[in-house]
Amino acid sequence: MSGLFGTLSAATRALEAQRYGLGVTGQNIANVNTPGYSRREAILQDMPPNEPLEAGAGVDVIGVRAARDRMLERRLQRERPAEQRDAAIADSLIVVEVAVGKPGESLDARLSAFFDTVSRLADDPTSSTARQETVRSGESLAASFRDMSSRLTNERRSIDEHVRGTIDEINGLSTRFAALNATLLKSAPDGSLAMQLRDQQKVLLDRLTELADIQALERSDGGMDLSIGTGQPLVMGSEVHTLVGSPTPPEGLLAVSTAQGLDITRDVTGGRLGGYLQVRDVSLPGYLGRLDALAYQVAVEFNTVHAAGYDASGGVGGDFFVAPAAVSGAAATFAVDPGVAASPSLIAAAGVPASGDNQNARALANLRDARVMNGGQATMVDAWAQLVYRIGSDAQAAQQEQQSRAEIVKQVEALTDAVSGVSLDEEAMMMMRFQRAYEANARFFQTVNQTIDSLMQMLRL
Amino acid sequence: MRVTFNKEFRDSADAIARNAAELSARQREVSSGRRIHSPSDDPSGTAAAIAERAEMATTDRYRQAADSVVSRLSVVDTALSELSDQTSAARVSVMSARGSTVSATQREAAAKRLEGVRDAVLSAMNTKFRGTYLFAGNEGSTRPYDRIGDAISAYQGGDDAIAVDIDRQLAVGVGLAGSGIMQGGDSEDLFAVLDGLIAAARSNDGSAMESGISGLDRAATRIASAQMRVGTDLADVDVHTQQLDTRRLASLSRLSSLEDVNLAQSISAMTKAETAYRAALGAVNSTQQLSLLDYLK
Questions:
Q1: Which is it for the CA torsion B175, B179, B183, B185, positive or negative?
Q2: Taking chain A, what is the end-to-end CA distance rounded to the nearest angstrom?
Q3: Residues 220-249 of B with CB under 8 A from A
Q4: Which CATH number fits domain B65-254: 2.60.40.10, 3.40.50.720, 1.20.1330.10, 3.30.450.20?
Q5: pTM for the whole thing?
Q6: What is the ipTM of this complex?
């Protein structure tokens, strides 16, 4: 007797189980587009028999399982920072490439034009037009140097803005991550809520690893600790240690430090933050340094030859360009000497104190080909070409690195997806399975019910 | 490997993005005709293009300088020819004033002609070209000889010549020192010789006229050798101009091979990219329509 009623309740439980399975399938289909969602699987188990000769006591719903491969996820978290770092470098350098201009249209053209006018002055040293032209093209060259310097400096500042934005975003995400840790602490470790919270944490962590080289360590209570750079704590349990971006002299650019005040600017080497810092603190200062070196040499070499000559009234030549105080900043302050600009007759074209002599102008014009850069290895235009080459090859390297790393990330993402992703075809099949199983169990329930009815009828007689 | 909903869409989106980017790059190549749009497209090519353009600018400048030199030397040549003619005319005039059968009127006429020669020589020596005195050496803004009353001043110009570069390590002299032509190594310049001859013609001083003729002959020699140097220089500049032109053409050709696309290749690549793009779009369309859900009733 209890056998039949037992069977009935087993059938009821079986219906529940198939309905539960349908529910899980529905959950998967509903979340097919949810970022970070990992496919759920219903865990069903057969129940052991209550009595020795019974086959079993039906099916039991143990729970639900999230299909995740921790190893693949960790791999992804390691690959992303490198890929995003190259992406950030490539993006930042695009602007620098545009700033540098095309061959024949940039600083090299101004240098050529300047030496053209000096050469024309050598052809006709008594012509006041030639002198004025020389001053004008000198001013144009100076403006070009100043312009280029300010473009590079402005790019540094604009990247600094990105650094600030990235720090803020990291802090925001870390705070939310810590809050999830706190909630995880309070919920059952294998429960559905915990799975959902971990899915959310995965989304946050994916974004965080794009932003910086962040390492995640699982805690025993189900949450995750995060650290940045060389292991500085970012999130410990439910505690957030926010990053601080503090402007530092001399240019007021941000230094990245921990909440305790430790400067980790040089330690953050991955993610977009690492890329921005690399361009801001290494690449751009390098380019500016080369530009300044070129500006300094142009001014110093030209002034040296100029000083050896005589101007139109027989006076000894002074400075043509304002003498730069130091190599650093020489491009930003590059200018024609105001005295010469005001009276071009002060241009020392003559080699001897004779008004029509042109020997010094010829010597000045020959500086065009003089190897005065890089310790006597390169001409001025060569030095500019080398700077452009450096920028171009840095950008090209970053682009190529990023592309090859993106391939790796895509592969690992595909593998992760293969484990955790929802396949609508698969879910359609599961739907069919649970539906058919439900139908079969319902039919079984009906059969058992009819059997009980027969028994009741028997007893009524 | 399980192929999931996300993977399908991600793969499709990637394929479309990749093909669209390729198509866009080929289109830009074809429409601009250029291979290099930013330094990262070809860093060493960009650096080489910068150097090549600078070289072309230098060649152009030397070409301009050469043209200017040719103009100046042509004017110098004309002036020297004039000097040569005048020296010959002076000689003829002196000859006509010599001899016992010459009358005072004829000698006066000869003297007048000699005065005319002196004026013409002065004018030739003071020839200007684009605001500079051609025979003033390196004092190009100073008139070489001034007329002071009836006499002519000493040479006022510079003693050194001016040279102009028409290539690296190649200079041509353009501004001659007038004193070299007028006086050279003589004790007096041509004007003094002419003055002496004018006085000698008027006073019928035979020996003075003789020494004056020697002075004229020496001047003629100096003028002739100056003209020969100018002639040689003009020929040399001409040859060099052709070399500069050849060099420029070579630069242009190298620049083109660095910067320009092979249009036929690019158009073909663009067509291929377009086809690939269409294929990617089409593939998305067909795969996304397949689903088991469609087959379940």
A1: negative
A2: 17
A3: none
A4: 1.20.1330.10
A5: 0.89
A6: 0.88
